Amino acid sequence: MIHYNIWFGFRDSVDETEGLAAVHSFLDELHSAGSVAGFQFLKNTGAASKPQMLPFQALIEFRDDAQFSATFAAQAAQGIHTGLHGQVLSIVGDFRIEVFKQLVTTRG
Which of 8, 5, 11 is nearest to 90 (CA)? Predict the structure, then answer.
């Protein structure tokens, strides 16, 4: 499993609820098309003066390298500033991305 982590914040003019709905629509479209294995949204709840990261995190899961590569190739072919991805880029201010590959799976 590959975990694509995006920490982000919205532009000042963007309402949080509307911004999260737009990001959710984009990721839900990818999930429905089988382009991602799953996703989660997280909100940083640390005191305003303490957080080191941006206010929101999207954790996007890919089954394997093939799914990861195919999804990024498809988005590049479509154009990163088009469709729902383009809409997300227009409302997100700052963002940080890190990619992690899962090493161990626990079973409950």
Answer: 11
